[in-house]
Fold each of these.
Amino acid sequence: MPDLILIDGGRGQLNSALAALSELGVEETSICSLAKREEEIYTPGLPEPLRLGRDDAGLRLLQEIRDEAHRFAVSRHRARRSARTLHSRLDELGGVGPRRRKLLIQTFGSPQGVKEASLEDLQKALGPSVGKRIFTQLHEEAPAGSPAEGVVV
């Protein structure tokens, strides 16, 4: 267990954390919270928050810890969100870049709509040769082990 648990927030967040720790049977660990606006430090034993000077080394340390936790959480969230971004068969098609992909989605509504589009509809949207090439790519079997195998359309 850590020597100190630092909560981002005021008295309410501290009380919620105390309740959660109590449910887990963790009540011996020191805990405090740091409220952002006034940079007040709340502790379970004191009714009023501690107010340290803006240049106090202890306050600066708590602020750096909080800010680093925020930076870490935000970058992790962005990475997870990016990893969850849908990948479709359209990303594997030769001759389809961002503009054509956007046009296809706008025209047919979804990657599945593009796959279900007729040759004539694709040619109407993209021109005769590009439409035929895309239609052919969408309807040929992906070889086993190719990047398109198992990709959601």
Amino acid sequence: MIRALRDPDRTNLDRVQIVKGWLDGRGELHEQIYDVACSDDRPIDDRNRREHPVGNTVDVEKASYTNDIGESILMAYREDPDFDPKQRAFY
């Protein structure tokens, strides 16, 4: 179970990700990024990544932003689709 909340006085959340690291049979380190929750009802594709980028509300010239997009809270349930109990991994 994953639950992420924005800071009460800060910008909204775009997405929640899990980074998995593991050692292969030769002892080499690998990493994989999984999107597990995305704001604005954006779907997650078959590669476990969001399909569409979030928009941008930053005004560089004025050094400001709005909270018109994103979410104040994101929640998800996640199971590792590649879980192998014999493999050493970290999340």
Amino acid sequence: MIALNLEVIYRFSPAQRRGNWTPFLGAGPALIFVHQSYQSGRQISFGNFDYETGFNVLAGMQHRRGYFAELKTSLYSGPAPRLWLIFGYNF
């Protein structure tokens, strides 16, 4: 699966900050290319991709030092995952 997520994220102002954490919200379209076949042995074919579209919605919190947690869901997307819980670091 290859997914291009074209999301826009809104970070709330520092006045709405709770301690060291700042909330954010986001949404945007997802372009998803999926290949769902498998051949036995070591030969894997990537010649036939299926195309799906979706719409992602997300919410999360980011720490001043760059750590963040995000909950994302994908709406209207066929075989793609529906819910993600993401932890990461922005530098």
